[in-house]
Amino acid sequence: MAYFNLNGKKAYYEVHGESDRTLVILNGIMMSTSSWLPFIPMLKRTAQVVLVDFFDQGKSEYMTENYTQAIQVELVEALLDALDLQQVTLLGISYGGEVAMKCRSSRVSQLILANTTAHTDQTLTAIGDSWVYAAETFDGSVFFKATIPPIYSKGFYNDRIEWLNDREKQFKKAFKPEWYQGFIRLVRSAESHDERKKLSEIQMPVLIISAEEDVITPPQCQNDLNASISDSKLVIIKHCGHAAMYEKPTEFFSLVVGFMLCGQDQFTL
């Protein structure tokens, strides 16, 4: 358990394993460092793994005013500097991918963008609004029913309904008003996200992971990323929704590890 300070605010991070390779993982909007812990034993066989909670997330400090994603980019770049990390593979999923594509640190040598988008369009804004309205109730069941069904594919949701029902019960117990308020600020911080004109600035190997049944950031979003980034490759995971790491962990992490080990030139699909 470790913290570092950025502009007077505490940010939480974890470092797992030792290796010449480093994988830094950026969370989705409803995630935290603990979301990745089941995968750490596997990942640290290949790389040193660095996890971090964004502000208003997990164990990092909560904000009191609205902000843009620029503050999260600053957090990530400050962490890379504080740990003196070199030749980093930066993996961002969903919200974390939006932050990752804004990062211009020379310490990053590879980028993995999963289930993410170059800009917040009207559909994604409407989804965010519905999540905010649900969060404002401070009711775990209301929030769960508004946010979780669209995150998973139809097949996964139907097959794992007992597990999902248990998750709903956990939502009711775990989330306090402070968490919901932080979540609302995170959603609002993504409303101005638009990197479409800056994607050409990304000059490193990029792996883009898409999911066939993602309705939050559909495959067209990743197709657009792939068309705009010069050194990128796109992989679409079949029969999978927005939470690809949970629905298809074998496929998801095989892509992540393979890309880290092989690099762009040798990485074949």
From TrEMBL:
GO molecular function, one term: hydrolase activity
Annotated Pfam families: Abhydrolase_1 (PF00561)
Keyword Hydrolase listed: yes
Domain AB hydrolase-1: 22-249
Keywords on record: Hydrolase
Protein name, per record: Alpha/beta hydrolase
Species the sequence originates in: Fusibacter ferrireducens
Domain of life according to the entry: Bacteria
Keyword Hydrolase among UniProt keywords: yes
Alphabetical list of InterPro entries matching this protein: AB_hydrolase_1, AB_hydrolase_fold, Carboxylesterase_BioH
